[in-house]
Amino acid sequence: MPEKKDYYEVLGVSKEAGEKDIKSAYRKLAMKYHPDKSDEPDAEDRFKEISEAYAVLSDPDKRQQYDQFGHAGINSQYSQEDLFRGVNFEDIFRGFGGGESIFDMFFGGGRRRGPSRGNDLRYDLDLTLEQASTGMETTIDVPRAEVCPTCSGSGARPGTSPVKCTSCGGTGQFTRAQNTPFGQMISSTACPKCGGKGQIVTTPCEDCRGAGRVHRRRKINVKIPQGVDSGQHLKLRGQGEAAPEPGGQAGDLYVFINVRPHSRFTRSDSDLMLEAPISITQATLGSDIEVPTLNGKARIKVPSGTQPGSVFRLKGKGMPRLHGSGTGDLHVRVNVRTPSALTARQKELLEELAAEFGEQRAAEKGDKRKPEKGEKSLIDKIVDEVKGAVQ
Ligand SMILES: [Zn+2]
Ligand SMILES: [Zn+2]
Fold first, then answer.
1. What's the predicted TM-score (pTM) here?
2. Domains defined along the chain, listed by start
3. Ion ligand 1: protein residues whose beta carbon lies under 5 Å
4. More confident call, 95 vs 320
């Protein structure tokens, strides 16, 4: 579990904020992140977060408990259900709707009133890092069940109509009242003859064979906001499967984002990391190097005496953050490359430099016995011998 954020920070209010400020801050954020209104990829999580913060800070007792003991104080005293008890969300959402669904969101249930809802669908969308950075609009191809256009979902051939089910009298349900020690219990079951629809199709539609739904591949436009990351999803309301019976609400379509790894940049939230090679002379003498960014090139001043692994920060050259709250940075780590294929001249210069540093070369170091004055070295002797043999 990630650490819980401070409730005041979540709502963007100060610790001294009054009741009115807290309410208006919550209302503003709730408008933005209400999952039934918002298409932001993390709307539901954000909405839960702000609603919980509001539930605590709008209640004087809970707020005091939180001020004194933080999240631990709240967790030890209240269950999730307790937190939301007595919070007047309807008041907040008056004229905007959706207040009653808050409880459903946290505790489930309650959503299935009336005709049943169509299934939600999931679509996995792969993006490049560049696409995630700029955001984009794209079209996805989604196979799904849709309302049959021929019969408008009734399942009955055009010109005919379904007839009322005689078993249940068109209610679709059998209701039974039973007297028990706890009072009268009402139980209801779906009518087996009409499957709970209350109607029976006698002349089925030819296109859907009476099902009322047909399978189609539908092209759907998706707008990806800039800054999305793997694991986040967008919710497209009502773009899931059609409800199994007429009048039911269509399900939602969830587009899950996967950002593919990049060949050069590694991402950490809104920051990017890049490895850039530099030569020993650039590292030693200092240099102005060019590095790629996600949108073009940038220059970095590498000061003289730069050590391998040094990291330079290019502010604002990372990924944009979701919700337009700025841009991350690009961190460039320089790798000093040791040259391996040297020309004779380069080698000579480096040897001179080594001598200047007072360094002994490995080859010399290994040869413990130094030739005395006038004495020929081993290699010279071999050369002489070879020459002699050729002559
Ligand atoms: Zn049909
Ligand atoms: Zn029936």
1. 0.58
2. 7-107 (1.10.287.110), 121-162+201-259 (2.60.260.20), 265-337 (2.60.260.20), 344-390 (no CATH)
3. 148, 150-151, 205, 207-208
4. 320
